[in-house]
Structure formats: C-alpha cells, structure tokens
Amino acid sequence: MRHNIRLELTICFKSKWHAGSGESSFLTDRIIRKDARNRPYIPASTLKGVIRESCEKLSRTLGFPPPLDPHETEEFSKAFAPLNMLDSPVDRIFGNKYQSGNLFFRDARFEGEPPYRFLREQSRICKYRMLGTAKDQHLFSTQYAAPITFKTSIDGYHNDLVCFDKDDPPFAYCMLISGIMAVDRLGGDKSTGSGQIQISFNSIECDGKRLSKESVFDYLDSESYNLAREESS
To answer: 118 is in which domain, residue-wise?
Structure first.
C-alpha cells in the first residue's frame, strides 16, 4: 500500500541562535548561514538530521526495533534489504547509508523583512573542560541571530508501512510527528543556552486525511507495532 504525509511547520526561536556556515568574515570567526538575499535560514539537511536523531531516541525509549548502525560493515547487513523490510520504523521512512528514504525536507525560511539589527557578534573563549580555565590564544567571535520565526514543510512517500488497521496512520509517521514535537533546540552552541525553539504544526495530512498531533500518541506502542508487523509479513 502506498502512503504519503505532508507536514507544514512553524519554528519559533525563543533565544538567540547560530546555524553555522563553516565560514568566517574579516571580523567574525563563525558567521551564520545566509541565502542569496543575505537572510539567515535553517538548511533542510540540518532539520533532517536533528529530527531523525530525535526519532531514534524516541524509538529506543519506547522499545521499538532499534535503527541500524550506520557504521556497520557486515558483508550480509540487514541494511541491504528493501526499506519496507527493515525492522525499525525510523529506518523505513528516513532510509540508511545504502538507500535514501522518500522523506523530503525543505529549508526553513522566514517571511517578510528581517527585524532591524537582528544579527550581533559575541566574543567568546575556549576553556579546558577538566580544569575550567581559559586556553591561551583561543579568543574567537560568533555571530548570533535574534529570536525569529521560520516556516517549512516536509513531504513523504512510502510503500508498505506498518499500520494497525488500513484506516489508521502508519506507526512510522506517528513516530515522525512525535519526534518533531520532542525537538526543543536547534543549531550550534546549544549547551550554552542558544537555539531554544518551539515547533508548532500548521497542518498534518496523512494519506489524504487531516490528523491532530494528539492522535498520534495512540500509535506509539511497540507491542502493537510488532504485532501488526508480524500480521502484515
């Protein structure tokens, strides 16, 4: 059976944040990633990585089959099997190192004009974690953005996902929605308080039907997932 999902999201930052570009300017060592219009944005690859990590943590916590190890080098690895034959609901929709899942993320961008002077630089030091003292010659500056709101969307198309009943949403999609709700930080320097976010759903459509985010909690039972998977195999 063919399944599809579309999520429209609003990402609201509650604190300063830094989504690094890996580049520097004349005065700043770490600058924020910007688009062609010189506006900051959240890359789709960043969103996908953060959300997948959240889904994997949630999957393990709830007792679902664990995702495959991406560093596995076994000659007869389960990762070579078709995605709809894998045990983990996370692997089925996100894919693995051999096969890409049909889950498509888009860059998160904000609408309208950016606030006045929403970028600022902050000088910082690097310190020894064990000693708690500053390192010599390790003064650097980081560019941060003020709290602003972004919008993005996610689309997915998959075959033969595990469902408890044909009219119920797939377990994997419910895991995805719950994993998104569990994300509370995004970007760099999270350990120092940066990147605090709140994600809200503007719309959730699964197999052409509207879903509420509260309804997905009914499908986060690992025993029901394993039972439905055995019946469908």
So the answer is: 2-232
The answer to whether 79 touches 88, Cβ cutoff 8 Å, is: no
Structure tokens at 127: 């310190």
| Cα 232 off chain centre by | 29
DSSP bridge partners of 30: 142
Contact, 162 vs 36, CB < 8 A?
Answer: no
Tens digits of per-residue pLDDT, 63-96? 888 887 666 666 556 655 666 677 788 888 887 7
The total of structural domains in the chain comes to 1
Tens-digit pLDDT profile for residues 167-181:
888 888 999 999 999
Element (H, E) at 212: none
By DSSP bridging, strand 103-105 and strand 119-127 are unpaired
Q: What is the DSSP string of 105-169?
A: E--BB--SPPPTT-EEEEEEEEE-TTT--EEEEEEEEEEEE---EEEEEEEEEEES---SSTTSP
Angle, CA 159 vertex, CA 168 and CA 63 arms, to 5°: 60
In SS3 terms, 6-29 reads as: EEEEEEEECCCECCECCCCCCCCC
Ramachandran assignment for 154, one of left (phi > 0), alpha (psi -120 to 50 degrees), beta (any other):
beta
CA dihedral of residues 146, 147, 151, 157 (deg, nearest 10): 100
Predicted TM-score (pTM) of this structure: 0.83
